Amino acid sequence: MAEAEIDKAMIVNWALVELGLAPNFSIDTETKLGALVDMFWPRALARCFGLHDWTFCRRTTQLARQAATPNNGWTYGFDLPGDILGPPLKLTFDAACEMPLRDFTIEGTTVFAHDPIVFARCKVALDPAAWPPQFADGFATLLSSYLAIPLTQDPELKADKEAAAIGTPSTGGAGGILGRLMAQDRAAAPVGSPAVTNMLGGGRSSSEPWHGRW
């Protein structure tokens, strides 16, 4: 028998079982429970994906260059992907993400640069069916902590589920199920060169001409 696909409804029902409740959530019916899920799912999503630069949701793409010339002093404007989660992880001259873009700024959903070609490595939104099962498990546990108060009025249960998902406050979100996954994810990724930075705190400047390369 084939395993059922992990989808939003299944993950919510995992969260309900974590709280000792019946797994009776369905996306096809409008209920009070559904309204609570709609309220807390985005919060759990933002928190889980904000904890770490998960490799399973990274994507490198060449950014689409805008036709109009920017009026802010930059030569080109580029559209960031519509499904991006948070700021880009890295902006580069090359698809392999080995040559960091030196001079740029980000305003809203636009990257401004002097180079005519820009690649971006980003975290992107994925359907739960594409999540690794271990991540879905950790997400369900964290979601259960958000649902604990409205469904059970039990603050201790909320704290227990949050600790199980991401650790106690002293771990800074690096403990529990998701903390262990973060450690495994980091261990599986290659160590970057110290000469390469992906800190994206606004514009970059350099004493060399804008067209210089590493």
Write structural notes for this entry:
By secondary structure, this protein is of the alpha+beta class. It is built from five helices and seven strands. It has helices spanning 8-18, 32-50, 133-152, 155-166, 176-188; strands at residues 58-62, 64-65, 76-79, 90-92, 104-107, 110-113, 119-123. The strands form two sheets. Strands 2-3-6-5 form a four-stranded antiparallel β-sheet, with no helix packed on it. The longest helix is centred in the middle third of the chain and has 20 residues, at 133-152. The radius of gyration is 21 Å and the shape is elongated. The termini are far apart. Mean pLDDT is 88; it is low at 193-214.
Characteristics:
214 residues; alpha+beta; four-stranded antiparallel β-sheet; three-stranded antiparallel β-sheet; 5 helices; 7 strands; elongated
